[in-house]
Amino acid sequence: MNRNLRKRLLGLLSAFTFCALITSAANGQFPVFPDELRLFQGQGKQLRLSLPVQAKVSVDRPDVVMVNGQATPTMTVSLGEPLNLSPVSSGEAKLRMKLFGQIPLKTVKVNVIPDLKVIPGGQTIGVKVKSAGILVVGHHQVTNEGQKVSPGESAGIQIGDLITHMNGIELKDVKDVSDIAARAGQGKKPLKLTYKRGGQTFTTSLSPAFDKSDGAWRLGLYIRDSAAGVGTLTFYAPDQGVYGALGHVITDMNTQTPIVVGSGQILQSSVTSISKSESGEPGEKRAHFIKEGKTLGNIERNTPFGIFGKMEQNPEHSVYNEGIPVAFAEEVKEGPAEILTVVEGQRVERFKIEIVHVSRQNAPETKGLVIRITDPRLVEKTGGIVQGMSGSPIIQNGKLIGAVTHVFVNDPRSGYGCFIEWMLQDAGILKGNSNQLSQNLKAS
């Protein structure tokens, strides 16, 4: 066969293949082939192109990923059959595909990540957290020499500021403030305050005012150093000894600013009753901390995706006693799934839901999923999603994929969820790329 004839035949085959690709795509049969693929070690993946042609597939690192069970760098495959990718070891490999051995079709970067399994939670937990300083939640006026003043407001302190030091003394408890203020007032010396606002640190001087009504020196500030509530445990990672819960940040109820954690703990809790959700009025779980119940873990971080810390063992009442696989964001599909949560006492139960929308996220964002409660038992008991249910793990096809985060106020059967991938990153278990991590830190 002469060279010109060979080129013509190759051109005809290319045109035929191109038409086949367009036709398949128009019929919705040709999947969007990714530029990058992430796989957990030990979890295989099938790629389906459904094209009646052969292609040459080459892998630069067959020690990282094998194609169709073969540890060879190059092979010829039929694209009418699925390509089976088998991760061998953690690392990065490039998979190149050429039609008829000559026409470049696609290059895919395959990222193999060490195997990861976590135990889904669902338990109702009590949360106690102390801020890393004293949070300003309001101003108040002090009557001093016939005038009403707020020393704190005059010093430029704003609601939402976090006071970390007074006269160089680190503030760990709100009870310390009155003694320091009294010493400064009696000595007629202004206090030097160090405070944080918007991620930046500032200093100012504040002169306490004497309140004759109760004989005390006042700052003219309403302050708080702790918060408490209930939520739901999302996962426990036994190999790392860490947990994640809530699926959203804890904010101060007055200022709506995120609480910077100084210390904290999660505790055993039991649901006593439920106020059902109705359109326009979200319900809530009513629960109490179990008297003499043990501390389950500490709280080290409070991020847009929940609270995270150390935990020594899997808590009681788990549906799962061993870890299950987790899913990357791109694996999550619209369709049926289930959540784990408590509606009475401490018993964790499974309830059916529908994932009605999946957002395609390349970086951490809180609203990744729209879910709808479809389980009639849960709807009857709660009316849908209620406060205290945030953090309930979402499971699809045997994998932990996310957590419940918020309810739609006007449609309490529906709400948002976040991808488990972002929670695992904030827990320090799963590494994100530098772009993802930088965006997540900005969100914090």
UniProtKB/TrEMBL annotation:
Peptidase S55 domain residues: 200-439
Protein's name in the database: Stage IV sporulation protein B
Pfam family, one: Peptidase_S55
Signal peptide limits: 1-25
Keyword Hydrolase carried by entry: yes
EC number: 3.4.21.116
Keywords, ordered alphabetically: Hydrolase, Protease, Serine protease, Signal
Coiled-coil regions listed in the entry: none
Origin superkingdom: Bacteria
Entry GO MF terms: serine-type peptidase activity
Cited InterPro entries: PDZ (IPR001478), PDZ_6 (IPR041489), PDZ_sf (IPR036034), Peptidase_S1_PA (IPR009003), Peptidase_S55 (IPR008763), SpoIVB (IPR014219)
